[in-house]
Each structure stands twice: as structure tokens, then as C-alpha cells.
Amino acid sequence: MARTGVLAALSADQERQLTALAREVSFPVGTRIFEEDGEADRFWVLRTGTVHLDLRVPGRRPAVVDSVGPGGLLGWSWLCPPHEWHLGAEAVSPVRAWEFEAAPVRALCERDPLLDHALLTHVATVIGRRLRAARTRLLGP
């Protein structure tokens, strides 16, 4: 696996432990990968393609608030209780990704506090960037 995004935030040993839990998946254009308020039981590291993150707007189509591309982390809600998606996600081009089930990754984090810290630090950075992107797109210039 390429060392970008979350993988670049880990030591070589931490990356090896984490990637041992990955499986390759793909999503065709238009696939709803997850829905806002659904159970966040996995996450993905994108290899190719683009996914739009969106927010429900009553009476309208979901509002796109950010995009995730190659190397990007898709999904952080798996790490933070109550483990429910805060946004929805849809593939807007063919996507290939590494998929991780949350429970084994959380168990790995419990056994390795340094890995836990590295993942939490990366996820906090992703959350901050996504909040800024959502604010920019929703409030606009």
C-alpha cells in the first residue's frame, strides 16, 4: 500500500499491523457507500477515484460538503462513539479502496496506544479539514 494520508501518519510497523486487516473493494459510479446516521462499522483508504461527502437537506438533494480522493480517508465516525455516520458518501467516479472493519482496528488500537494516538491525531486533522470545507461550501462566498 502507498504511504499517503493515514498510512503516512504511521510507523512502518503500525502500517504493517493495520494493513494486515485490509481488504480490497471497489465501488461503481453512483454507489451510496454510507448514509448519514447509519452504523459506522468500517472505513476506507481510497486508492483511486473520488467520493463526495454530503449532508441531508430537507426537501432538497443532499448538499455536497467535501470530496475524498486517492490516498484519502473515507470515514472517521467508526472511531468516535456512538459510531454513526455524520455525513453520507457517494462514489462519483469508479473507486478502488482498502476497506477496514472498525472492530478489529479498534481492538488493535487498544493493544497499541501509539497506533491509537497516531490514528486519533490523523482523524482529528481530517475532521478539522472537513468542517472547514463544509463551512466554505455551505456558506459560500
From TrEMBL:
A GO CC term attached to the entry: cytosol
Single GO molecular function: DNA-binding transcription factor activity
Annotated Gene3D superfamilies: Jelly Rolls (2.60.120.10)
PROSITE patterns with a match to the protein in the record: CNMP_BINDING_3
Pfam family name, one: cNMP_binding
SMART domains according to UniProt: cNMP
Domain spans labelled Cyclic nucleotide-binding: 6-75
SUPFAM superfamilies the UniProt entry points to: cAMP-binding domain-like
InterPro entries for this protein: cNMP-bd_dom, cNMP-bd_dom_sf, Env_Response_Regulators, RmlC-like_jellyroll
Protein name: Cyclic nucleotide-binding domain-containing protein
